[in-house]
């Protein structure tokens, strides 16, 4: 429960590779070094459902467009650590058939990161701490 107003709904993507020998999570480093390691995520637009939003955000932030599966994991309300607001977060597990081990992608769309370059790579889930509590549901993709 939160005592802060929920100001936005956000969609978060835990993307794993199909066919990999062991489970790998797609993460990126933001051009802003203080932003930490993250997963694709973003604001759900008016009239958009969370599943549509997570697919759009992944496309805009990583360039990936095809997924073997998409399943919801959890929805919660998260208090921002530096600002007096809260987000409703919708987490999804997406499985993609991706052979590249790493790549750089220039963010598209109308968000504040439009034009920023993200550097993507794969890690074992839980191998690194994700920024802003993005790893709260990582254990749900381990089985």
Automatic annotation (TrEMBL):
GO terms for molecular function: hydrolase activity. Residues 1-143 form the Nudix hydrolase domain. It comes from Haladaptatus paucihalophilus DX253. Gene3D superfamilies: Nucleoside Triphosphate Pyrophosphohydrolase. This is MutT/nudix family protein. The keyword Hydrolase applies. It comes from the Archaea. InterPro entries: NUDIX_hydrolase-like_dom_sf (IPR015797), NUDIX_hydrolase_CS (IPR020084), NUDIX_hydrolase_dom (IPR000086). It holds the Pfam family NUDIX. The lineage of its organism: Archaea, Methanobacteriati, Methanobacteriota, Stenosarchaea group, Halobacteria. Transmembrane segments: none annotated. The keyword Flavoprotein does not apply. Keywords: Hydrolase.
């Amino acid at each position: 429960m939160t005592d802060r107003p929920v100001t936005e709904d956000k969609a978060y993507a835990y993307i794993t590779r199909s066919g990999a020998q062991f489970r790998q999570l797609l993460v990126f480093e933001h051009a802003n070094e203080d932003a930490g390691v993250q997963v694709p995520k973003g604001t759900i637009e008016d009239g958009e459902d969370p599943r549509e939003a997570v697919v759009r955000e992944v496309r805009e932030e990583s360039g990936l467009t095809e997924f073997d599966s998409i399943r919801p994991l959890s929805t919660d309300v998260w208090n921002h650590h530096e600002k007096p607001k809260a987000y409703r977060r919708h987490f999804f597990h997406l499985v993609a058939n991706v052979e590249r081990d790493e790549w750089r992608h220039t963010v598209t769309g109308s968000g504040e990161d439009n034009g920023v370059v993200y550097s993507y790579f794969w890690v074992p889930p839980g191998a690194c701490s994700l920024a802003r509590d993005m790893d709260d549901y990582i254990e749900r993709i381990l089985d």
